[in-house]
Amino acid sequence: MSAVSGEAAPAAQSPASRRRVLFASLIGTTIEFFDFYIYATAAVLVFPKLFFPASDPASATLQSLATFALAFFARPVGSALFGHFGDRVGRKATLVAALLTMGISTVVIGLLPTYAQIGVAAPILLALCRFGQGLGLGGEWGGAVLLATENAPPGKRAWYGMFPQLGAPIGFFLASGSFLLLTHYMSEPAFFGWGWRVPFLASAVLVLVGLWVRLRITETPAFQRVIDRAERVRLPMREVLVKHPRALLVGTLLTLSTFVLFYLMTVFSLSWGTSALGYTREQFLWLQMLGVVFFGLTIPLSALYADRRGRRAAMIAATVAIIVFGLAFAPLFVAGSLGGTLLFLVLGLGLMGMTYGPVGTLLAEQFPAEVRYTGASLAFNLSGIFGASLAPYIATWLAKHHGLQSVGWYLAGAALLSLVALLGVRRDQAEL
């Protein structure tokens, strides 16, 4: 018997309406993650050379990774800001505002002058735009997950909840593909002169598409019930902190290994692979894109398993596998073997899909509808601070001072904390 067979159905919707909801949740997170990942790629390949003093390349890379981390500290602020309105005004309007915040910040990055043109003001402006990206994503993710899960029919909540999660591999694939095409067809001077700006400016077109889709959806049944029952709370953030601290703590910790794994497999591996291991930028981007295919494929597989066996059980199985992968990190990630490095990326990103597929639904189930936008978003983004913001920086420092295997121990340790939190999760909730 399914662990979630008692789920209550939302108000009746036509198939066309449900498809529109799922596409709205997918397109928004695809755009958001595309914006986020083009920054992550540029933080390794472009910004150290153009936005920071060139006298010390190693320091410039670490400073660039520090601006990358800044967005993760902005995300809880976005959770509080957009979560407040998402739980007070509604999911739809808040999702539109979050998308605009992220999109405008990304387009402005594509217009910024460099360090050679305006000096120290360049990295300051870059940091401000990065903060804006984090602010928007802090409000985007939780709303997209609720848009999907609160419209899900009985027995398909994890399946619906995985649609916004698919935005991550699709967005990453588009971001890496953009830089791969640019570096392949452009000369080095042209790429660093203006080519790197193209993905940031092209984001404007994607944002317009996303806005058009989201303006055509209706409010979720769960939030409509909150309105009808007059259950909206005046200060959702206070309600979460005072009445649901256990859910917030558990939600933050159970997502920790998801963040650490992803940013080790993307930002750190790109940086380490193109420096210490000697791969060219083009070689490694190709390898990463192949790995991301498996990230995308394992998300629906994990959702099917989660709907059959339960979200908690699916997350526990994926987290145990991440611990094992962490212990084998260094032997897999070595120089001189394209096949071995591809296997490393396929395994790591495949495991990422297995944990990422059900995590949004499981987090949403930890909070009641009247504070769910705030609670789920805050837990997810606090985990981003501890699990993702400094992960590339910490991993780079560990690898240089204690060897690559210490990075694997770091991942295994984070996964162990997530496993402890998952063991403390109550049963999957029957009703959202």
Automatic annotation (TrEMBL):
Superkingdom: Bacteria
Span of domain Major facilitator superfamily (MFS) profile: 21-430
Any matching Pfam family: Sugar_tr
PROSITE patterns assigned to the protein according to its UniProt record, in alphabetical order: MFS
Localisation per UniProt entry: Cell inner membrane
Keywords: Cell inner membrane, Cell membrane, Membrane, Transmembrane, Transmembrane helix, Transport
Membrane-crossing residue ranges in chain numbering: 21-40, 60-83, 95-118, 124-147, 159-182, 194-215, 247-272, 284-306, 313-336, 342-364, 376-395, 407-425
GO molecular function, one term: transmembrane transporter activity
Topology term for the membrane: Multi-pass membrane protein
CC per GO annotation: plasma membrane
Predominant location category: membrane
Presence of the UniProt keyword Metal-binding in the record: no
Name the UniProt record assigns to this protein: MHS family MFS transporter
Protein species of origin: Luteimonas marina
